[in-house]
Amino acid sequence: MARAPQKPFSGSVTIFHERWLPEEAIPVGYAALIHAYELAVPVPRTLAAIGPRHKVYEDDGWRIFTPRHQPANTLDAQLTFSLRYEGLDLAVLKALFRATGPDPIAEIVRAAPTGSYARRIWFLYEWLLQEQLDLPDAATGAYAPVVDPERQWAIVGSNSTRHRVKNNLPGTPDFCPMIFMTQELNALVSRNLAAQARALVADVPADLLARTAALLLLKDSRSSFQIEGEDPPQDRIQRWGQVIRQAGRRAIDLEELLRLQRIVIGDARFVRLGLRIEGGFVGEHERNIGTPIPDHISARHEDLEKLTNGLTAFDKMVAPELDPVVAAAVLAFGFVYIHPFEDGNGRLHRFLIHHVLAARGFNPQGIVFPVSAVILDRIEDYRRTLESYSQRLLPLIRWTATERGNVEVLNETVDFYRFFDATPHAEFLFSCVARTIDVDLPAETAFLAGYDTFKKRVSALIDMPDRVMDLLFRFLRQNNGTLSKRAREREFAGLTDSEAAEIQSIYEEILPTLSGGNTSAT
After folding, report:
1. pLDDT tens across 43-88, in order?
2. 120-163: per-residue pLDDT in tens?
3. What is the spatial distance between Cα 310 and Cα 257, in angstroms, rounded to a whole number?
4. Among 184, 211, 213, CA closest to 197
């Protein structure tokens, strides 16, 4: 491919790609390369620029560097700046390499054959484009990591003797989102949430733990349907809960995803099962003529097999080397952006979270963290997390409406679904998992223990069947610890005034243990 003309910045600017800078500054690194080569890529969440002051600071999506950091306005210098200070943005790099063609990259390597940045650039070119440059194998130079593990998540990886680098990329050329090492993520990882969860349940009696697990599972299953705006029958909720209980037992491949989709859909008379054979989008239709109004456009159906292969390779080879929650975020949100099926993508996306956590032994044996319930509670945060990438992606996709009210994508988009910054997604999921451990797990256990105490004390006062006891408890829950006049006159007309008062007093005593727990007594 012919090399695109460069359009260097002639001086400071105040706006770049409709994004205001905090002060007049010269965009550098990825921003300069996107501008110079007119790259049609999602703009990185954080960009770099050279400001007039001798102060490095971050503000509203910009990291402003000092004049001494100013790189020369050359491909080599801007690329090196990006790798050194901004980390890897594989979507930008692949688009850039296609725009430059092989010769300028080979020139960079020939000019500094032992340079660590030159060898990393060389490796990334061949890895991303899957084609070799006309260069002999590197003969000298210490092995340099492709990913800076102090800046972005990486795996142990393996050496590439041709480039004398360590390939520690957390994925394959078919699927490799990147995640930055943020203070929030580092703090959550350092908490060792898995050990904290195991400690929480270590002293819980087995029967109480089993009932807690059942409640959490039902809560997650029901919430996953509610997120999709569905209110299915109880038996369907329970069936999906049983599927979630089995998460992590089978490797994720296309056959397994198809099996799960069949379970999710149930009645498939009006849904085509399997990979899509046309476009897909998430959004609405214009009321009168049915024109699509997309919030997110899914991967082209022609690319689904390659992207699905990338997902399954990540699950098999990469996920075991990453923090379990980080790996779950990458796999699950990557899947939902690709949206490979006509229907069922949302629930499968959340199933994949459970799959990774269970496969890695993150949650205690038999316990399913009710992540979907937390997502439902934080639905606006969830949507903002999804939009952190889909809103940057949407303007780059050229599409036309089909006669059936669908979309047909007109440009190449496959790399947009392979390479994205999954940092917000990992932070969001980690915070959801932390909430289940800090709040939901102890609250559900305390709730059931409190119910058992209530049942035992009321049974000592008056004998009643379990189903009546459950109804009594629910009535008290619904009426702030007091039996309503209706309940006293109908279902519990047999209680004396003193018995009713004593039962209400018992409930009031155990109320602190019930706060935040499940609204069901069983």
Report:
1. 999 999 999 999 999 999 999 999 999 999 999 999 999 999 999 9
2. 999 999 999 999 999 999 999 899 999 999 999 999 999 999 99
3. 14
4. 213
Query: Using 50, 70 and 90 to split pLDDT, how confident is the model at 41?
Result: very high
Q: What is the mean pLDDT of residues 234-251?
A: 88
DSSP string over 169-233? -SSBTTB--B-B--HHHHHHHHT-HHHHHHHHHTTS-HHHHHHHHHHHHHHHHHHHHHHTT----
> Partners of 284 in the beta sheet?
293
Residues 107 and 133: their CA atoms lie apart, in Å, by 10
Q: How far apart are the first and last CA of the chain?
A: 66
Q: Which residues share a beta bridge with 144?
A: 165
Q: Is residue 103 pLDDT above 70, yes or no?
A: yes
Token pair for residue 174? Answer: 């078919």
C-alpha span between 52 and 74 (Å, rounded): 21
- How far is the C-alpha of 395 from the C-alpha of 6, rounded, in Å? 23
Q: Which CATH superfamily is domain 183-441 in?
A: Fido-like domain (1.10.3290.10)
CA distance 472 to 462: 12
Structure pTM? Answer: 0.90
Domain boundaries, given as residue ranges, for the chain? 1-100, 183-441, 462-514
Q: 391 CB contacts (<8 Å, ≥6 apart)?
A: none
